[in-house]
Amino acid sequence: MKANRGQIEKALDAPPADLRFFLLYGPDEAGSQTLVKRLERAMGLEAERVDLDGVTLREDPARLADEAASFSMFGDKRWIRVAAMGEESVPALTALLESEVGGNPVIAVAGALKATSKLLKLALDHKQALAFISYQPDAREAEQIAISIARDGGLRLSSDLARRIVSLANGDRALMAGEVEKLILYLDAAPDRPREATTEALDALSADNPETEVGPLVNAVLGGDLKAMHRELGGLAESGTAMASVIRPLLTRAMLIAGIRAEFDASGRLEGAVEAAGKVVFWKEKGLVTRQVRQWDATGIARVLQRLLDAERASRSGRGLGDLMVRQELLTIARQAARERA
């Protein structure tokens, strides 16, 4: 079934027993990931999460239905998250929806899907599935998103500053969240100790400040350049930049790679897949992005996304141990990229 914004949010906040599957797709993958977090909150911190990806489901189509019907070994709630889902997962989704036992909710992020997609048609036509498309927000919506993210973190953000953050992030939801999170950390804001965002703080941390530019780090980590990665991490440490600020740009690039890789695997044309991504791929970085897509297959980039999400959670534990855990995850990703490049 097709859902509007209100319907998908309501269903994810309190998953109905008669819904087995949620499909989140569309060009705004960051928006889809935000919706995944709503289900994660609804299931609770103690819930067991099972992570799968499209390649795994292609190789074992029965796996999805089996996981959805299984009980948690600890007796807690259980849910299944699928990354980089594509046409290869149609048999797996069919098995899930035709299974006599559902039980645990399944949520998948598929990126941009064509209107002719068999996966999308299956989700739209079945009464136990809910599909929602996320589009890039317009300027006004983006401002409200930035203000809402700030409010959740205990930060009061004026419309003028929100507009500036939208401009800095070019309307990208994930990058906006990264800018706001840097402000939250910088001003030591929290829901129980709200702070007022200031122009001075944003000037010190904004993405156009060369001291906090993380683009070279993104390319070093995902490109497997260990020497450059250590150099960039050293520079960030000297400038006092929190590691939390590097996760969102890395997630954005990894999701971009995942989307292009899925299109490349489907069409067999890498150049065409990169072109299909449109303006999301900055022209100066088209060569770098193309090489990174070559390096990471669908399974590999799905694992990278999972590691980055784990790193994001670690970064919230505060500076010190949290930063060390983030660095370790980045090192693991870069080492794998170096092996793929060799």
Walkthrough of the structure:
The chain has 342 residues and is α/β, with parallel strands linked by helices. The chain is built from 17 helices and 7 strands. The protein has 2 domains: 5-133, 3-Layer(aba) Sandwich (Rossmann fold), CATH 3.40.50; 139-251 and 296-341, no CATH class. Helices cover 59% and strands 9% of the residues. The protein has a 5-stranded parallel sheet, sandwiched between helices. Strands 6-7 form a two-stranded parallel ribbon. Strand 3 (78-83), helix 5 (90-98) and strand 4 form a beta-alpha-beta unit. The protein is globular and about 60 Å long. Mean pLDDT is 86; it is low at 207-212.
Q: Work out the number of β strands.
A: 7
Give the overall form: globular
Taken in chain order, the helices and strands follow as HEHEHHEHEHEHEHHEHHHHHHHH
Which consecutive residue ranges, at least 5 long each, have pLDDT under 50? 207-212
State the major sheet: 5 strands, parallel
Indicate the radius of gyration in whole angstroms. 20 Å
Strand arrangement, major sheet: 2-3-4-1-5
The secondary structure category is alpha/beta
Domain count: the total is 2
Summarize, please.
With 342 residues, the protein is of the alpha/beta class. The chain is 59% helix and 9% strand. It has 17 helices and 7 strands.
